[in-house]
């Protein structure tokens, strides 16, 4: 449900794909891929992963990293979205890089909070669980604030962001039915090659990858935040049948929708 580890990155990231939310403190420069998209971080960065996001380490050398994991049953980010707003910012956002880079003071502030959490885990007293949740919420709130500030600065520096915003809006409207890149290129009055190049430069992945990730993200939400059957989820996402949907989901996530729901659970806010 909740754990803190201090571990060698090369052992952790050989095939990291778990049913937990993960917060990984990276003291050194790091090279890795998340869902097969490559990233390079500066020193003092924090990586955020949602359940069953695939992580692979690309560094030639290994380093010690601090890993904090929690299950959705321990702390529901959807339930606490008003206080923390990390769902869609730190976690579960296909348009943003999955990490933040901090100055040394802010990074050490997070390290100290996790150190306090380790002490509380060892103490294992009557109110330890509540204290751990409070520390976790504070970490998420601080990191959400930092990422929000960094995102605002980045957007103010972009000169070609209008088309990218329109693509995001179009995808949010049409991903249930339209999964062909050419549909979105036509909507933007762009050639497919020009559209694909611009998306790749901005997001580090192709339009097809983004479309697939959006479909899978919605599938995960429906499996975790509703009581709908796999068949009902397949219908809502416009798949021909639940078996095709299950194959599609398993290819992208690594396990079936049913197995995903068993591992991640159904949220306390499920409807």
UniProtKB/TrEMBL annotation:
Presence of the UniProt keyword Amino-acid biosynthesis in the record: no
Keywords: DNA-binding, Transcription, Transcription regulation
Every HTH araC/xylS-type domain range: 165-263
Entry annotated with the keyword Secreted: no
Cleavable signal peptide: none
Pfam families: HTH_18
Domain of life (superkingdom): Bacteria
GO molecular function annotations of the record: DNA-binding transcription factor activity; sequence-specific DNA binding
Protein name: HTH araC/xylS-type domain-containing protein
Native organism: Bizionia arctica
């Amino acid at each position: 449900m909740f754990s803190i580890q201090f571990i060698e990155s090369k052992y952790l990231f050989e095939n990291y794909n778990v049913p937990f939310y993960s917060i990984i403190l990276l003291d050194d420069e790091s090279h890795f891929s998340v869902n097969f998209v490559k990233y390079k971080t500066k020193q003092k960065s924090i990586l955020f992963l949602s359940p069953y996001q695939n992580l692979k380490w690309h560094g030639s050398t290994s380093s010690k990293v601090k890993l904090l994991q929690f299950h959705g049953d321990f702390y529901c980010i959807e339930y606490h979205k008003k206080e923390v707003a990390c769902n869609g910012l730190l976690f579960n956002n296909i348009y943003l890089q999955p990490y933040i880079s901090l100055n040394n003071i802010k990074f050490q502030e997070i390290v100290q909070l996790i150190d306090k959490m380790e002490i509380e885990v060892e103490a294992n007293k009557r109110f330890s669980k509540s204290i751990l949740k409070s520390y976790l919420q504070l970490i998420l709130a601080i990191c959400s604030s930092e990422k929000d500030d960094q995102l605002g600065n980045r957007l103010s520096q972009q000169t070609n962001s209008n088309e990218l915003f329109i693509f995001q809006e179009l995808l949010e409207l049409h991903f249930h039915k339209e999964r062909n890149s050419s549909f979105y290129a036509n909507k933007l009055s762009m050639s497919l090659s020009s559209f694909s190049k611009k998306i790749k430069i901005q997001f580090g992945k192709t339009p097809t990858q983004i479309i697939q990730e959006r479909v899978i993200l919605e599938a995960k939400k429906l499996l975790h935040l509703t009581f709908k059957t796999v068949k009902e989820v397949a219908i809502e996402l416009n798949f021909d049948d639940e078996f095709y949907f299950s194959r599609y989901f398993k290819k992208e996530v690594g396990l079936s929708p049913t197995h995903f729901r068993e591992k991640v659970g159904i949220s306390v806010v499920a409807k």
